[in-house]
């Protein structure tokens, strides 16, 4: 028998960073990147059993955090963060386009500690976007203190407020040609 219930959150996974009560506000939220190069793989705290909950994250220039409507709506309704529609600014993109945010959420995501291999949770204030190129876009987070560039994936040194650096390993660099070949293999 297949389990059709949404995954449940493992309460042993620590929350290392939470923007819920930090008074997050962006004067001019925008994406100052083409925003289609995967920096990290993150995981939804709650997801359908047919998925491992993983999604692509781009970390680059801009102001604000952004989550795609598709990713937001993939969170089971019983666990989906409340969409607040009071703040729906027009978001500009480096590519020249604009989109109107559908609202904001405090979304829990999980990352993996590169040293221990254990997952931990961070909760980010994010604008829900109708047509984002990937699951999530994070603009210059103040918790990333170091970034070491490497062909096998960037290494991010994160301080979530404790003064301790937590290493998060990024995704290996893939050329546009490699991505195109992978997409062609799927078709």
In short:
The chain is mainly β. It has helices at 69-74, 176-186; strands at residues 15-18, 30-31, 40-44, 54-60, 62-63, 65-68, 90-93, 98-100, 103-112, 119-129, 136-139, 144-148, 155-159, 165-169.
Keywords:
187 residues, six-stranded mixed beta barrel, four-stranded mixed beta sheet, globular, disordered C terminus
Q: How would you describe the overall organization of this protein?
A:
The protein has 187 residues and is mainly beta. Helix content is 9%, strand content 38%. The strands form three sheets. A six-stranded mixed β-barrel has the order 3-4-11-6-10-9. The protein has a four-stranded mixed β-sheet with strand order 5-2-7-8, with no helix packed on it. A three-stranded antiparallel β-sheet has the order 12-13-14, with no helix packed on it.
Secondary structure elements and pairings:
Layout: E1 15-18, E2 30-31, E3 40-44, E4 54-60, E5 62-63, E6 65-68, H1 69-74, E7 90-93, E8 98-100, E9 103-112, E10 119-129, E11 136-139, E12 144-148, E13 155-159, E14 165-169, H2 176-186
Parallel strand pairs: 1-10, 2-7, 4-11, 6-10
Antiparallel strand pairs: 2-5, 3-4, 3-9, 6-11, 7-8, 9-10, 12-13, 13-14
Span of the ends, CA to CA: 31 Å
Supply the helix-strand structural class: mainly beta
Broad shape: globular
Low-pLDDT segments, ≥5 res: 1-9, 182-187
Q: How are strands sequenced across the largest beta sheet? A: 3-4-11-6-10-9
Percentage of residues in helical conformation: under 10%
What is the beta-strand fraction?
35-45%
Order of helices and strands: EEEEEEHEEEEEEEEH
Find the count of extended strands (DSSP E, 2+ residues): 14
Mean pLDDT: 83
Number of H- or I-type helical stretches: 2
Global Rg? 16 Å
